Amino acid sequence: MKTLIRSLVAFGMLLGAQAVAKAEQIVLQSVHSGKYVTVVNGRLAASAPNARRASMFDTVRLDGNRMAFRDLRTGTYLRAGVGKGAFLAPGSPHIRGWETFEVARLRGGAVALRSVQNGKYVRAGVGSRSHLAAVSPHARGWETFRIVSIRDLINGGNGNAGSGGPGLGDIAGTYRITHVAAENGFLVQLGRDLARQSSLSLSRGGDVRASVGCNGMSAKIRVRNGRMSTEGGVIGTKMFCPGQGVMAAERGVGRALTESRSVVRDGRTLIFKAADGAELMRLRG
Questions:
Q1: What is the pLDDT of residue 132?
Q2: Which of 37, 198, 280, 284 would bridge with 256, disulfide CB 3.0–4.6 Å?
Q3: CATH 2.40.128.270 residue window(s) in the chain
Q4: What's the confidence (pLDDT) of residue 9?
Q5: What CATH class does 156-284 carry?
Q6: Helix (H), strand (E), coil (C) string for the chain
Q7: Model's pTM, two decimal places?
Q8: What is the CATH number assigned to the segment(s) 23-150?
Q9: DSSP H/E element including 47
């Protein structure tokens, strides 16, 4: 009987090891700041400028929408509740309450992480080092993250792993259009009302949907290592829109989607640029 029990325990440990080995390997990115999560002074912080400098984790899927994260460098699990500030840090040998997080799926591919132990959402930007801590009662800007697959990084889905430029996995989401280039080439800021009703959504597959309050536009783009190309041009409805500003803004968005050859991320801002470096459009996440 003892031999059988030992065999079952060993088999269970083997299954657990295989489950971890097959888990998806990821990095975490703060939606609010655009920075990646790494270890600073023993605790997690959203401070890495690109995915290459981020900490890598295995995702361990538990019941329902619950998940644990295993730090690849140390082989230990992330734990919330470190110190009085409920900071996050690797170092736990097991998965229990403090190591378990509920993953809430949000718009634009973002997620929020809620500690099962204390019921609080994980917030980035705590203190001057942008540490992560399970302290928030809600999921808003600083509490939203992107889970970026290492597989996507290797395949070019997120160029920050290589040359420093973004890829589709890095910039997918929903944005407000804040600036577009006029026909004379100068970048113009949209008025408050026009900017409020504008939107542009970008999927991880490169599908773009945009509007500045009247006609809808769609396009298919490719972004790799910050370099952008458009497949098949821009398609849009043809309604007459009241106000010259709306029509001019629509034309500017169409030109940006057609003529941009690079995309730069600056925190929550995306900048679309022409081949000569001229800015054609700015978006705000």
A1: 97
A2: 280
A3: 156-284
A4: 39
A5: mainly beta
A6: CHHHHHHHHHHHHHHHHHHHHHCCEEEEEECCCCCEEEEECCEEEEEECCHHHCCCEEEEECCCCEEEEEECCCCCEEEEEECCCCEEEEEECCCCCCCCEEEEECHHHCEEEEECCCCCEEEEEECCCCEEEEEECCCCCCCCEEEEEHHHHHCCCCHHHCCCCCCHHHHCEEEEEEEEECCCCCEEECCHHHHHCCEEEECCCCEEEEECCCCEEEEEEEEECCEEEEEEEEEECCCCCCCHHHHHHHHHHHHHHHHCCEEEEECCEEEEECCCCCEEEEEEC
A7: 0.54
A8: 2.80.10.50
A9: strand 43-48
Residue-level pLDDT at 3? 47
Contacts of residues 100-105 at CB distance under 8 Å and 24 or more positions apart, as own/partner, are 100/62, 100/66, 100/67, 100/68, 101/66, 101/67, 101/68, 101/69, 102/64, 102/65, 102/66, 102/67, 103/65, 103/66, 103/67, 103/147, 104/65, 104/139, 105/65
- For each of the chain's 285 residues, which pLDDT tens digit applies? 444 444 433 434 333 433 443 468 999 999 888 889 999 999 999 999 888 889 999 999 999 999 999 999 999 999 999 988 899 999 999 999 999 999 998 876 789 999 999 999 999 988 877 899 999 999 988 999 989 888 766 654 443 433 456 788 888 999 999 999 988 888 889 988 888 889 999 998 999 999 988 889 999 999 988 889 998 889 988 788 776 688 889 999 999 999 999 998 877 889 999 887 888 999 998
Residue with tokens 């497949």: 231
Q: Are 157 and 37 in contact (CB under 8 A)?
A: no
Query: Which residues make up the CATH 2.80.10.50 domain(s) of the chain?
Result: 23-150
Q: Which of 254, 263, 258 is nearest to 283 (CA)?
A: 263
Give residue 6's Cα distance to chain centre: 44
